[in-house]
Amino acid sequence: MLYKRLRLPRHFVHKHMGRLRERRFGAEADLRRTLASELPEGPLDLDPGSAWRLFEAGEIPELTQLAVDCASYFEAFRASGEAERCLARNPNKRFLLGVLSGNELFSQSNIIRGMLARPVLDAVSRYLGAVPRLEGAVLWWTPPNDSETSSQRWHIDELAPRQVKVLLNCSEVDESCGPLNFIPGDRSDQLRNDFGHQRGRLDKERLLAELDPAEIRQATGGPGSGVMLDSSRCLHFGSRGNQRDRLLLAFHFFAPDSPVDSRYHLEAASLDESLGNLDPIQRLALGTGL
Q1: Number of structural domains in the chain
Q2: Burial of residue 89, with CB atoms counted within 10 A of its CB: 0-12 exposed, 13-18 middle, 19 or more buried
Q3: DSSP code at position 277
Q4: Containing domain of residue 206, as a range?
């Protein structure tokens, strides 16, 4: 509301709301920073400047299995007739249709566990400088479409000053499936500064006039492939011009002091037996304490 309706500057809202969030976490915020500082460097680390890291199918076994689990859930969703009902509820939208989101995901403990895979969680912790919170998640389905609106246009995610979003391909994704397109963070920062961009969508023609097409990356590949990126910095769009279905699990991590909750917020009141053996860092990321 402060940012979108009252149109207060993004940095002002993040700074002051972040202070309130920091007070809420108290001493736990210091613990999260200490634990992150003790983690060794790993193969999935995001470069602080460019702020992205592609991964291939099979590179992270936990994510490869997670993609299989999400695809199985979607097949059951489709077999039950829910896919057709979903399309009927959204007659004017044919992209990013939510199959499973937010706290609904706690009904699928294998998916929760997969999102907390330590190779990913450790890399995110090092990038953000603290053990983050798994803020939100949604299993997206995008059928064929010819629209170009909303998140199908160039933008950044504006809820947090920094975040790491993991976009996991749960189906085979090539250029015909509307893959995520993105520009590395340092180049995005430069372009946004040149354009004076503060909020909303960037004009495609204006952006492409200043950009070498080779600077645009795509997150294509088989199930289990995808990208980790700071979507608060990297300009991006996706789900545009699909000729075939795309199934994608999107989950994102915020620093402890990030100011707001997302639309697909996850909040675990407690852990059931299926998640009872998470390690301390995974528990902190899920928000259940040590």
Answers
A1: 1
A2: exposed
A3: T
A4: 10-286
